[in-house]
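[scheduler] slot 2 assigned
[scheduler] job type: sequence-to-structure, two independent chains
[scheduler] chain ordering preserved from manifest
[runner] begin chain α
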Amino acid sequence: MNPSPLKVGIIGCGNISNAYFTGLRIFDVVEVVAAADLVFERAEAKAKEHGVRPSSIEDLLADKSVDIVINLTVPKVHATVNLAILAAKKHAYVEKPFALDLAEGRKVIELAHSSGLRVGCAPDTFLGGGIQTARKLIDEGAIGEPIGAVANMAGHGPEGWHPDPEFFYQIGGGPMLDMGPYYLTALVNLLGPIRRATGSARASFAERVVGSGAKQGTRIKVEIPTHYAGVFDFASGPVAALNMSFDVWSHNLPIIEIYGTEGTLRVPDPNNFGGIVEVRGAQEKEWRVIPLTHSDQVSRGIGAADMATAIHNNRPHRASGELAYHVLEAMLAVELASQRGAHVILESTVAKPKALPIGLPLGKLDA
C-alpha cells in the first residue's frame, strides 16, 4: 500500500518555480498544496496557474498540514528561510546555493539534525538519466580507475536574457555559486568527496548592461568575481580542473570529461537531466554513444521527491544538505585559495549518493 503523499508548500514564485510545480506532479509521494511569496500577487498568480492555494509566507509556515517547504527565494536569504522552515517543524528543500557562507550553512544542518528534520538542496540533475548512466559506467569500471576530470561552464552572463539579473552580480551570485553546484555536485556523485582545492578568480568587467525586458539598458555594478579557474583533489585520487565564467564570448571546451586508466567518459551537461553519454576506450578509435540506463523524463523536484521517499522509508536522501554543504565549501575554497595563494583543505566530507536503481517506473523512487 502506498503511503499518503507528503504535503508540499513552495516559497518563492519567481522564474524557477514553474519547473518545480510541474516536475513534482509526476511523483505520487508528494502533493504541492500551496504557493507563497513576499509579493502576495505573485503567489496568487502562480497558485491560480498550478491549481494550488495562495498563501502568505507566515501562514504557510504556520500550516500544520504542510510537511515539506521548498525554498526558491533569492540566494542571500536561502539559509535564513531554511532556518525559519525548520523552526516551523517542517522539512526544508532549497534551491542552490545552499548558503552564502559556511557558518550559516552549518546552522541549517545543525538545526535539522537537532530537530529530527530533513534538509535537501538542488541541484538534483545528477539524478537524471544522463549522469546516472555515467555513474553506472564508472562504477562498473568502463574507463578503469578515474584519475582526472575537467568541467567547464563559460558564457557571457545571464543579463542578455534574464528579466531581473542584478542578483547574479551581487554577493551570492556569480558563475561559481550560480552554476558551480551543477558541475561539482555531478563530480562528487561520480568521484566522491573533495579533499582540497585551489584556484584563481577575477572580475573582468566592472559593469554589466541588461539586454532585454523591462530593465533593458540598466547598468549593473559587478560586486563579485565572474571568472574562476579551480583545481580539486578528490579523496579517491582524481584531480579535476573546473572553469566557471560569465566573461567568455565563445569557446570549444568539453562540458565534463572523466579520464580513467582504461579510457575516457564524456558526461552530458549537468544543468539538464538527459543528454548524450560517450565512452572511448584506450584502444578504441571512435567514441561510442551509450544508451541511457535511467530515465531522462524526470525534472526539477526529483530531489525533493527522493527526500519525501526517504522520509517514508527512513533512509538517506540523495540531494542532501550535507552534499550541498560540501559542494559549497569546495566552491568557496577557490576564491579563498586565490586570495591566499595556497591550497585549501576542506573540513567537510560526504558519502557519494547512492546510485539510482535501473528500471524505476517514471514517478517512483526506491525504498
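[runner] end chain α
[runner] begin chain β
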Amino acid sequence: MHKIATTVVDWRAIREDFPILHEQAHGHPLIYFDSAATSQKPRAVIDALRRYYEHENANVHRGLHTLSSRATEAYEKSRQRVAEYIGAASADEIVFTRGTTESINLVAQAWGGRFIGGGDVILLTEMEHHSNLVPWQLLAERTGAKLRFVPVLDDGTLDLQKLPSLLTSEVKLFAFTYISNSLGTINPVAELCAKAHAIGALTLVDAAQSIGHLPLDVRDLGCDFLAFSGHKMCGPTGIGALYGRAEILDSMPPWHGGGEMIVIVTLEKSAFKKAPHRFEAGTPNIAGAIGLAAAIDYIERIGRPAIFEHDSTLARYAAERLTELPGTRVFGPNEERGALVGFVMDAAHPHDLTTFADQYGLALRGGHHCNQPLMRRFGVSGTTRASFYFYNTTEEIDRMIEILRDAVRFFS
C-alpha cells in the first residue's frame, strides 16, 4: 500500500497552473484524458525553460565563461534534484537520457552487451510496454540469451504463483513495469526485487507510469535500475533518466561515443569518464533537465501521496462508471489501480470511439498502446484508454460517460 495524503489540496486551483486546459477542441472545452501518453505542463515548467534560454543558454561542462558556468550549475543541480526525488544515494547514480525507452536501451546495450551471454535468461512480464520488451529481444538475438515471461491473470495482475518456476538461477535480469500503461495494475515492486536478488539476478523497473503519481524510493524498492520519462510527470519531452546503482554503472562500458564522455583521446584509443558522464556523449538536453527539475519541484509542492490518492480515486470512479454503459468491458484490477482505465465497447472500434469523442473535446487514446502481446493475451486488437492526472476532475469523467453513451447510440 502507498502513503495516504494528510493535506488538503485545492485541485481546482491547480488547474489554473496549466494554460492548455483552457483550450477548446471542435468548439468544446478540452477534457484531456491522455496523460499516460504525455502530461500537460504547468507554467512553472514553461517559465523555467524560458528563463534558461533567456538568461543561461550555453553548453555545459566545457566552457569557462559565465553563461557556461551558469548552465553547468543548473544542469548538475537538476541531476541532484532527480536523485533526491527518487531516493538515490548519489547524483552520480543518475544518467540523463531522452526518456524511458533510451534508458532501457542503454542498459540492454551497455550492461547487457557485457554481462549477458548464451544460456542466460532475461525475465519479463506479459504486460510490458514495447520499450521494455523489444530491447531485450534484440539483446537475446545478439547473444543467444533466452526470454521468459510472467503471465498475466484475467484480473490484470501478475500470476505470481508461477514465479518460482520462472525466476531460477539462469535469470540474470528481471525487468518489469511498476504500473501497467494499459491495465493500471500496480505491481509489488519491492517484493519482486527481493525475490530476484535472492537468486542473484539484477532488476530493472520501468517507472514511466508511476514516477509522477506516487511516492517512490529506489533504495526502499531495492531495484538495481529504474527508468523514467520527464514528459509523463509535467516535464518537457526528450528528457528522462536512468537510475543505476553506482557499482553497476561503474562496471558498464560506454554506449555512445563522442564528446563530453572522454578523459583523453588519441588516434588509437580513448579513456572515458566515470558514470554518469560516461553515458552522456554529446551536448545533452540541458533545458530539458532544468525543466525536469522544475517539474519535480512543482509535484513535490503538491505532494505525491496526495497525487496518488487523487489519481487512483479518479481511476476507480471512471472504471465504476464505465460499467454503466452497455457492452463495455473494463480491464485491470477492481481495487487499487494506477491513474488510468482501459476498456472496449461492443458499439465501436477503439479508433472510431476516440475519433467520435474528439468531436466533443474529449481526448482519449485508442489502440494497442505499445502493448501488442498484452492485447493478444486478452483477445482484443486494442482498447480505449482514459488516463488521468491531478488536474482532472470527477465532473470531467461524468462528461466522458455522457459522450460515450452518445457514441453507443450513434454507432448502434
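[runner] end chain β
[qc] chain β: The chain is about 40% helix and 15% strand.
[scheduler] slot 2 released
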